[in-house]
Design goal:
Layout (H helix, E strand, L loop, with lengths): L2 E2 H7 L3 E3 L5 E2 L1 E2 L9 E4 L6 H6 L4 E5 L9 E4 L2 H15 L13 E2 L4 E2 L4 E2 L4 E2 L4 E2 L4 E2 L4 E2 L4 E2 L4 E2 L3
Parallel strand pairs: 4-5, 5-6, 6-7, 8-11, 9-12, 10-13, 11-14, 12-15, 13-16
Antiparallel strand pairs: 1-3, 2-7
């Protein structure tokens, strides 16, 4: 599935700067993104990576400028990126993540039950336990030694 930058800007209530007709077919982290993908910048300390990313578009805080890049300015780039991830996942026929996304950070001593799904950029800290069949959406944080029950569905804020 593909969508234009202009359509994505409307979806996340953002404002695009640059070419709104650019087609986006997926999402990725700022340092891993390729042409045709969208990424985001939530923390200005990663501005240099955003300036050199190969992504076709970058979601940025409203005050950030990235000359020469197509950007979507958003109030909360993390929330906006999560919405874009959900949009593309829904287009693939299933809105819930499956398995453990390669960008998820799961501590080596965290315990995941059977059929647990962990979305992109989620963090599960040391000693945490996640119950069977739980779905953890992109960018969710599960703290150290936390326990999440069976069959839960956890979204970011």
């Amino acid at each position: 599935m593909r969508s234009t930058v202009a359509d994505i800007a409307q979806l996340i209530r953002g404002e695009f700067v640059g070419d709104g007709s650019v087609e986006i077919h997926g999402c990725s982290g700022v340092s891993d993104a390729k042409a045709g993908e969208i990424t985001f910048l939530a923390n200005p300390k990663y501005l240099s990576q955003a300036q050199t990313t190969k992504a076709s578009a970058v979601i940025v805080p409203r005050q950030i400028k990235l000359p020469g890049k197509t950007v979507i300015k958003a109030e909360d780039p993390s929330w906006a990126f999560t919405k874009v991830l959900e949009f593309f996942a829904a287009q693939e026929g299933d809105a819930h993540p499956k398995g453990v996304h390669p960008t998820a950070m799961v501590a080596s001593d965290a315990t995941l039950g059977k059929n647990v799904a962990v979305g992109a950029y989620a963090v599960i800290e040391a000693g945490a336990m996640v119950g069977e069949g739980t779905v953890i959406y992109p960018q969710v944080y599960v703290g150290a030694k936390a326990t999440v029950g069976k069959g839960c569905l956890i979204y970011p804020k």
